[in-house]
Design a protein that fits this description.
The structure is a single chain. With 200 residues, the chain is an alpha/beta fold. 48% of the residues lie in helices and 14% in strands. The chain folds into two domains: 127 residues, HAD superfamily/HAD-like (Rossmann fold, 3-Layer(aba) Sandwich), CATH 3.40.50; 63 residues, DNA polymerase, domain 1 (Orthogonal Bundle). It has ten helices and seven strands. The strands form two sheets. A five-stranded parallel beta sheet has the order 5-4-1-6-7, sandwiched between helices. Helix 5 crosses helix 6.
Length: 200
């Protein structure tokens, strides 16, 4: 089935991130705190679906680490340290693709990270038809209902839609509802891989 729609993940696909930077900094504060790309404490999930506010998140980090003297600024600096920057040529790629395909962003994100990247990513977001951040829609990947929500909102047919993502769990969630997928393991090869897929 020809691809007519594109859904992009943000972190690891369009924007470079390094989870280990945050993991290391949090572990240095407390060995009892768990945060990684595959497994994390409930507070991180709650923050990603907007269940708690940025201030509640910061207070929760202080409680988890038992470092009650940590300032909001210190916590934000630790939390934002994973955000490296846009991958090269991603803005140009998205603008080019948007001339032929409706493009949607689906990202597990939170308010603090969004506030940090918003200005940098504005040119990236401009040609997109719709942006779905988990903290705004109250649901996150890899849950199939998250993908179903996006398909319904956009009136996309799953078999005509390609989801580009770096995390295999999220790829499986998209496959569960019939979406075509590209598991991106080498970010710098994204454009070449897309060209190969989209020419069919």
């Amino acid at each position: 089935m020809p691809i007519k729609n594109l859904i992009f993940d943000l972190g690891g696909v369009l924007y470079e991130i390094d989870y280990q930077k945050v993991t290391d900094k949090l572990q240095a504060l407390s060995p009892n705190i768990h945060f990684s790309q595959l497994k994390q404490d409930t507070i991180f999930d709650d923050f990603e679906i907007g269940k708690i506010t940025p201030q509640q998140f910061r207070d929760g980090i202080r409680k988890l680490t038992q470092k009650l003297d940590l300032s909001d600024i210190q916590i934000d600096e630790i939390w934002n340290s994973m955000l490296i920057g846009l991958f090269p040529n991603r803005v140009e790629l998205i603008h080019k693709l948007s001339q032929k395909y409706p493009i949607v962003l689906l990202s597990n994100a939170n308010q603090i990270h969004y506030d940090f990247i918003a200005k940098e990513c504005k040119p990236l977001f401009e040609p997109m038809k719709k942006i779905f951040f988990s903290f705004e829609i109250g649901m996150r990947k890899p849950h199939p209902e998250t993908f179903q929500f996006v398909l319904q909102q956009m009136q996309f047919k799953p078999e005509e839609t390609l989801f580009i993502e770096d995390t295999i769990l999220h790829i499986e969630g998209a496959k569960a509802v019939g979406i075509q997928t590209l598991h991106l393991t080498q970010p710098l090869k994204l454009e070449n891989q897309l060209i190969e897929i989209l020419k069919n």
